[in-house]
Amino acid sequence: MPRKTVSTRKRARSIVGEVAAARTALARNEGRHEQARAATWHWDLASGRVEWDERLKALFGYAVMVTDAAWRESRIHPEDRDRVKVSLQRATIVTHGAVWSERYRFRQADGFYATVTERAYVVSDDAGPRAILGAITPTSAGRLRPRLIRSRSPTSGPAARACPRG
Fold first, then answer.
1. Same domain for 89 and 142?
2. Residue 18's domain spans which residues?
3. Could you give the C-alpha distances from 26 to 13, 21, 30, 34, in angstroms and in order?
4. Which residue, 100, 89, 94, is CA-closest to 133?
5. What dihedral do alpha carbons 52, 98, 130, 82 form, nearest 10°?
6. Domain check: are 135 and 75 in the same one?
7. Is residue 110 assigned to a domain?
8. Rounded to two decimals, what is the model's pTM?
9. Is 9 part of any domain?
10. Does residue 153 sit within a domain?
11. Counting Cβ atoms within 10 Å, is residue 132 exposed (0-12), middle (13-18) or buried (19+)?
12. Do 81 and 144 reside in the same domain of the chain?
């Protein structure tokens, strides 16, 4: 009987090992697929220089390869900009060595907005954050048309016209 138990344990360990190897391979392949769809960037915090790879042009239409933080921020949709900016600052200042992720709308060269997921890693040493390495991946199937951003009065627009005034 003990021999059967040992054999069963060995087989169970073998199956667990195979499942772990399959999960690792799947994660690696998914990572490659995700990376192929992402524009990557490196932000040197000392100089303020942001270097992009060639996928910035392929995915979003921008031919520029070197920018600064202001360029990137200006392409974040105005309704998302403060949230994204504060979130990244928090990751950079508060939690050194942090992995950061945010979903927002990014203006493409043609003026349309793409919903993107951006992930970044804050590179730090004993003196603090030195650089940020990131990747921005389009997640929207289509492109969102640019809209005029204007405030609406609660007494105007289709909903207000549909409601009787009393």
1. yes
2. 1-36
3. 20, 9, 6, 12
4. 100
5. 60
6. yes
7. yes
8. 0.64
9. yes
10. no
11. buried
12. yes
CA 127 to CA 40: how far, in whole Å?
A: 25
52 in the same domain as 27: no
pLDDT in tens, the chain (166 residues): 555 555 555 544 555 555 555 455 544 544 444 445 899 999 998 999 999 999 999 999 999 999 999 999 999 999 999 999 999 888 877 666 678 899 999 999 999 999 999 999 888 888 878 888 999 999 965 455 554 434 344 444 444 444 444 4
AA letter at 23: R
Distance between CA 134 and CA 52 in Å, rounded?
9
Identify how many contiguous H helices and E strands the chain contains and give both numbers.
5, 6
Query: How many structural domains does the chain have?
Result: 2
